[in-house]
Amino acid sequence: MRYYTDTSSLFIRGGFRAASTGLAGGIRSVPALVSHSLPAGEGQPDPGRALETVVAAQGLEHSYFGLTTTVPVHQACVLQHDFITVFIAAGIRREPPATGGSITIIVVSSQGMDDAALLEAIMVASEAKAEALQAMDLPLSGTPADAVIVACENEGAAVHVSAGRSTEAGMRIRNAVLYGIPQAIGRHDAGVQDDRPAFFVFSRIREDHWIHWTKDKCPYYPCHFAGQSCEYCYCPFYHCHDETLGQWAAGSNGKKVWNCATCRLLHEPEVAAYLKAYPGASRQELMRLAGRKNQ
């Protein structure tokens, strides 16, 4: 999986088995997941046509799952909890009608899931959304415009046959949604004007907690080499499992985790600048660019 944004859309690319409750939803294999921000107010474009337009502009195949929202794309939140990454855009209207606004959730697992687990994960994400709203004293479980996509990589190698709230996948999804909903609503309420979605990573250092990572307040710089680029600190290609870049290591729970501490690829300033200019570039293309630079 890799993801990037432009001024109005979030694109998540890879090879996915996915289930969607959004436009033209269902369950099938798709190469891309898209969340597109429509302009707020009267005279909104047709959501389906708007999605087709942004997908065509990216040169993507027509087989994709897409969601639309009125929340600006850079007010969204991205939450990474081990092998689960959750993307949330949320805005709730406080004035009547009280159910106005929308909450969209995209869950991506880097580990394979059975179709039944994908559907169960939609239930878990929706339950956690409702729980988070109630905890915020918002008297609703969602809005009529809400939608969820759950997707997994490694199709055909299902690690998870279930994704209920007590499973490894379900616990991580629920935790991310519970934490992410108030963060996303808060960003929307504040009218945040950042140039990218907020990024949160679940840490077990000292005690379990979420960290809001920002590149300008990192205590670990330089973590790779002096002069490195931090534009893509949390790599959009993680977990690539390319052992020419990273390696497997023992995690704190005794299981193997993907460790890319030695990878320099997206920290090379020229490579980071290239990816920012051409967000559709593949990892192989960036590796060729880095190879030419180092020759």
Structure report:
The protein has 295 residues and is an alpha/beta fold. Helix 2 crosses helix 3 and helix 4 (269-277) runs antiparallel to helix 5 (283-293). Strand 1 and strand 2 form a beta hairpin. It folds into two domains: 2-202, L-amino peptidase D-ALA esterase/amidase (4-Layer Sandwich); 214-293, no CATH class. The mean pLDDT is 88. The longest helix has 23 residues, at 168-190. It has helices spanning 47-57, 115-135, 168-190, 269-277, 283-293, and strands spanning 2-5, 9-20, 26-37, 65-69, 77-81, 84-92, 101-109, 112-113, 147-152, 158-160, 198-203, 209-213, 247-250, 256-259.
Quick summary:
The protein is of the alpha/beta class and 295 residues long. The chain has helices spanning 47-57, 115-135, 168-190, 269-277, 283-293; strands at 2-5, 9-20, 26-37, 65-69, 77-81, 84-92, 101-109, 112-113, 147-152, 158-160, 198-203, 209-213, 247-250, 256-259.
Radius of gyration: 19 Å
Number of individual domains: 2
Strand content: 25-35%
Q: What's the level 1 CATH class of the largest domain? A: Alpha Beta
> What do we call the CATH topology of the largest domain?
L-amino peptidase D-ALA esterase/amidase
User: Low-confidence spans: pLDDT under 50, at least 5 residues?
Assistant: none
Describe the secondary-structure layout.
Blueprint: E1 2-5, E2 9-20, E3 26-37, H1 47-57, E4 65-69, E5 77-81, E6 84-92, E7 101-109, E8 112-113, H2 115-135, E9 147-152, E10 158-160, H3 168-190, E11 198-203, E12 209-213, E13 247-250, E14 256-259, H4 269-277, H5 283-293
Parallel strand pairs: 3-4, 5-11, 7-9, 8-10
Antiparallel strand pairs: 1-2, 2-3, 2-9, 5-6, 6-7, 11-12, 13-14
Helix pairs in contact: 2-3, 4-5
